[in-house]
Description:
Blueprint: E1 27-29, E2 33-34, H1 37-47, H2 57-62, H3 72-77, H4 86-90, E3 94-104, E4 113-126, E5 129-140, E6 145-156
Antiparallel strand pairs: 1-4, 2-4, 3-6, 4-5, 5-6
Family: Belongs to the enoyl-CoA hydratase/isomerase family.
Organism: Streptomyces dangxiongensis
InterPro entries: HotDog_dom_sf, MaoC-like_dom, MCH/BMMD
Amino acid sequence: MTPAAFDPDAFQVVPARTFEDLRVGEVFRAPSRTLTDAHAAAFQTVSADNHPVHYDAEWARRHGHRAPVVHGLQVLAFTAPGATLFPHFIGEVFISFLELSCTFLAEVHSGDTLYPALTITALEPQGDNGVVVTAATIHNQRGELVLSGRHKYLLRRR
């Protein structure tokens, strides 16, 4: 008995879907993540954001923060579609990430655990393509909404 040939192009994490297969209300979660000082230090290095609110505990306390504040853009990065299974579900129909917006609702500190999710709020057909609109949210371990935003993606239709 000869084993079937392996085809890397057919290897999928989940069965790919099309724009037409998506539904308003579907939720795509990212794994929870507890932030550490190492995460903040790495982001500070990459972003070159050297504001003391992000690394100086005494400066942060003198200015009304209980501890150094994790960079907002680092928190936003946890809503990246690739942090969820969403890109695997849409497979080859993805064209581009069109836009994003967000509001930072509460501070995030080292030791906080974040729970990101993308929820489809609208599906807008546009000729041969379609726009998927998602609500991007992040809650912390206390159930507080720390980030609320919106993403838009352009997908190819059937």
